[in-house]
Design brief:
By secondary structure, the protein is of the alpha+beta class. The protein is about 25% helix and about 30% strand. It has two domains: about 1-95, no CATH class; about 105-315, Fumarylacetoacetase-like, C-terminal domain (Fumarylacetoacetate hydrolase, domain 2, Alpha-Beta Complex). The strands form four sheets. Strands 1, 2, 3, 4, 5, 6, 7, 8, 11, 13, 15 and 19 form a twelve-stranded mixed sheet that branches. The longest helix is centred in the N-terminal third of the chain and has 13 residues, at about 70-80.
């Protein structure tokens, strides 16, 4: 099954809606509408049916997953009863990020990308990547969906795409082993971890991980395919820019399995429904590794077998803004002397 989030205009502004995507039938089913109609058919008033339906199927996939196994049971009831009556064409919606992730963690589980990335940025390869599945946390406030324009921050001249998988957590878990960790996975989406490469290298040398080089945009979409429909260890991954294939890889070349990634993150920490864990970039899955660059107006498509195609257009560079002034050290020089 495939789930997505769409945007509908309302009297008080845009409203997020949770939908099931039927690619074979070329349609989407608005779950809240289907549930409202089902309840009305069983004698509920329109007002109360609407309230209950929006509680069962909010616009937040993370919140919906928080109800546990009841969520998929409710989906089945709504689709069976009134799915046809709550359908719309697949090409109609205005897509939001497929998951409104409470927390977005990104790993780096492809050796070939690690080697190429370090070589291009002039960084020394850290062999610790083969001892533990490193990850960083990026801002969930800048999530964009399929079809959205990618903002180009004023502080970078080198915007890049990154071809990744996004593993969607379906329930709470902590201190897990890999087998138990895999049972937490609800589904897979496509993750384009946009990067400001000329900012990333100096940030990484500070030893605290990426910040401004990553937080401006992360694309998730077009939808989430449930884990039962996929072999997560054999997903083909392709990136195209303006229709030309630039990158191709497979999840089969990951150093760490999805279960190992989730298990490591869960040690001493807690995962929650809706959290997204990035796989890291597929081999040669970025313009940086290819010695190429994106330009404003470029259309970037990421495709993953069984999941779909995530498409975004690079926006114009934003006008100049504030940059931090250089500070003079007051203690560092004296300590060295």
């Amino acid at each position: 099954m495939k789930f997505a989030r769409t945007r509908l205009p309302g009297p008080d502004g845009d409203v997020a809606r949770l939908v099931v995507v039927d690619t074979d039938g070329d349609r989407v089913v608005d779950l809240a509408t289907a549930e409202r109609l089902r309840l009305q058919g069983r004698g509920a008033s329109e007002r109360r049916a609407r309230e209950v339906a929006l509680t069962t199927f909010p616009g937040s996939l993370a919140a919906a997953l928080g109800t546990g196994e009841e969520f998929l049971d409710a989906v089945g009831r709504a689709l069976d009863a009134r799915g046809d009556d709550a359908s719309a064409p697949l090409d109609g919606p205005d897509w939001l990020a497929s998951v409104d992730a409470p927390l977005l963690r990104d790993c780096s589980a492809f050796e070939e990308h690690l080697v190429g990335y370090h070589e291009r940025l002039g960084l020394e390869m850290n062999m610790g990547h083969f001892e533990m599945p490193a990850y960083y946390k990026t801002s969930p406030s800048r999530l964009i969906g399929h079809g959205a324009e990618v903002p180009w921050p004023h502080y970078t001249d080198y915007l890049d795409y990154e071809l990744e998988l996004g593993f969607v957590v379906g329930k709470v878990g902590r201190d897990l082993d890999p087998e138990a960790a895999e049972s937490l996975l609800f589904g897979v989406t496509i993750f384009n971890d946009f990067s400001a490469r000329d900012i990333q290298a100096p940030e990484m040398r500070l030893g605290l991980g990426p910040t401004k080089s990553k937080d401006f945009a992360s694309a998730l979409g077009p939808w989430v395919t449930t884990i039962d429909e996929l072999d997560v260890r054999a997903l083909e991954m392709i990136a195209r820019v303006n229709g030309e294939e630039w990158s191709r890889g497979s999840s089969s070349s990951m150093i760490w399995t999805p279960g190992e990634l989730v298990a490591y993150i869960s040690q001493g920490d807690e995962l929650h429904a809706g959290d997204v864990i990035g796989s890291g970039t597929a081999p040669r899955g970025s313009a940086l590794e290819l010695g190429r660059k994106l330009s404003p107006g470029d259309q970037v498509e990421l495709e993953v077998t069984g999941v779909g195609v995530l498409r975004n257009v690079v926006g114009p560079k934003q006008p100049a803004g504030w940059r931090p002034p250089k500070k003079e050290p007051k203690i560092f020089g004296k300590a060295r002397a």
